[in-house]
Structure formats: structure tokens, C-alpha cells
Design brief:
36% of the residues lie in helices and 30% in strands. It has 135 residues and is α+β, with helices and mostly antiparallel strands. The longest helix is centred in the first third of the chain and has 24 residues, at 3-26.
């Protein structure tokens, strides 16, 4: 192998390592999860300043959560790319209960439907959602 080939190989390796570092530094390719109730409450407060979450229903896999504040208002938080997005659970939200799963569909098409595996608590949260929606 000639010196030019070694230089090209070395430059290519440096470029690949730099791109890998840059992707990691930007958080691309991450698999964001809601770690626990405290994390979900922080995300709700980031989405709506002063929301003041007091209760959380977190999906077993950690991809989504419902956060309720002391006034009874609720926010649905879900993983969106390598970040999180939140939307209010209100009259425009459609809910469907299927055993241990609660599926919420936001009127905002780009947010889409979110299915949370909540176990035995799914029915409790479906009932709370009806209270918020129907007043």
C-alpha cells in the first residue's frame, strides 16, 4: 500500500469517528423514555409553565404518560423523535379503553394516537379522562 492510500484510510476513519461523535452529541438516534413519575411531572412543567403535576400514569415502557394537576387538568406526554411532546387531555381527545391499555387520540393529527399500557390502572385513568372531558 502506498502512503496516499494510508492517508486516505486514516482521513476516512477520522471522518467516521467525528460523525459518530456529532450524532451522539446532538442526541440523534436516542431512545427517550419517561424514567419515572418525577420525570413526567418535570416534562409537564416544561410543556406548560406552572402546570404543577400531582399524579402520573406512566406507560410501562416509558414512551408516554398522563400527568394530572391539583385542578384535575391533564397533559398527555409522549416521546417524539429524541424529545418529548405534550398535549392537553380535553373535550377534543378521544379515549378508548381495552383491558390494560388506554388509547388517547388527540384532535391534532400530527400528534397522533398514543396507547399506554397502564395495567389495572387503565380503567381508573379512563374514568378520570371522562370527568375532564365531560366536566
Amino acid at each position: 500500500m502506498t502512503a496516499a492510500v494510508w492517508i486516505q484510510l486514516g482521513a476516512s476513519l477520522v471522518a467516521v469517528l467525528f460523525i459518530a461523535w456529532l450524532v451522539r452529541a446532538m442526541g440523534l438516534g436516542a431512545d427517550p423514555r419517561i424514567e419515572d413519575a418525577a420525570h413526567a411531572i418535570r416534562l409537564a412543567d416544561e410543556a406548560e409553565a406552572g402546570f404543577g403535576g400531582v399524579e402520573v400514569a406512566r406507560d410501562r415502557a416509558g414512551f408516554a404518560a398522563i400527568v394530572r394537576n391539583a385542578e384535575g387538568r391533564m397533559l398527555l406526554i409522549r416521546a417524539h423523535g429524541n424529545h418529548f411532546a405534550a398535549r392537553p387531555v380535553d373535550a377534543g381527545t378521544v379515549g378508548r379503553l381495552d383491558k390494560d391499555f388506554l388509547t388517547l387520540t388527540s384532535p391534532e393529527r400530527t400528534f397522533g394516537a398514543v396507547t399506554l399500557q397502564l395495567g389495572k390502572d387503565a380503567g381508573v385513568w379512563a374514568s378520570r379522562m371522562r370527568e375532564v372531558v365531560h366536566g
